[in-house]
Amino acid sequence: MIQHLSSCEDVKEVSETKKAVETAEKAVRKSGESKLSKIISWFAKLPARIAKPFKNMYYELKKVTWPSKEKLITYSIIVLVFMLFMGVVIGLLDMGASALVKMLVV
Q1: 22-45: b or e for each residue (b if 16 or more CB lie within 10 Å)?
Q2: Distance (Å, whole) CA 40 – CA 91
Q3: What is the CA radius of gyration of the chain?
Q4: pTM (2 decimals)?
Q5: How do residues 36-93 score in pLDDT, each as one tens digit?
Q6: 43 and 19 assigned to the same domain
Q7: Residues 94, 86: contact at Cβ < 8 Å?
Q8: Same domain, yes or no, for 8 and 22?
């Protein structure tokens, strides 16, 4: 049983060593690339990176179920009536607060 544990530890050490070597190799490959080639690569990929969100937006908008003309008109009227109602309520509250301040000041 003791030998089994030591062999498991050896396997772990070997796998950790392999991972360390792989990361070191990746770092060497990346550092081997010149700054100029990185900049050129960045500019070469720029149009695709700019276009990607717009393409995604286009495909998402194709999935949207748009309301019919009648529903759109109905919803618009509901919003306009609600805005008119809230405007009247806020106007009345403002007039009442103004009258209260005038009574307190005079």
Answers
A1: eeeeeeeeeeeeeeeeeeeeeeee
A2: 60
A3: 34
A4: 0.45
A5: 888 898 899 999 999 999 999 999 999 999 999 999 999 999 999 999 999 999 999 9
A6: no
A7: no
A8: yes
Residue closest to 42 by CA, chosen among 68, 15, 34: 34
* Alpha carbon distances (Å) from 82 to 37, 73, 78, 88: 59, 14, 6, 10
The whole domain housing 38 covers 33-64
The CA-CA-CA angle for residues 25, 12, 27, to 5°, reads 15
H helix or E strand, kind and range, residue 101 = helix 69-105
The two structure tokens encoding residue 52: 């990607």
Nearest Cα neighbor of 15 from 5, 3, 7, 4 is 7
Distance CA 15, CA 18 (A): 5
For residues 88 and 72, membership in a common domain is answered with yes
Q: Are 73 and 101 in a shared domain? A: yes
Number of domains in the chain: 3
The span from the CA of 96 to the CA of 75, in Å, is 32
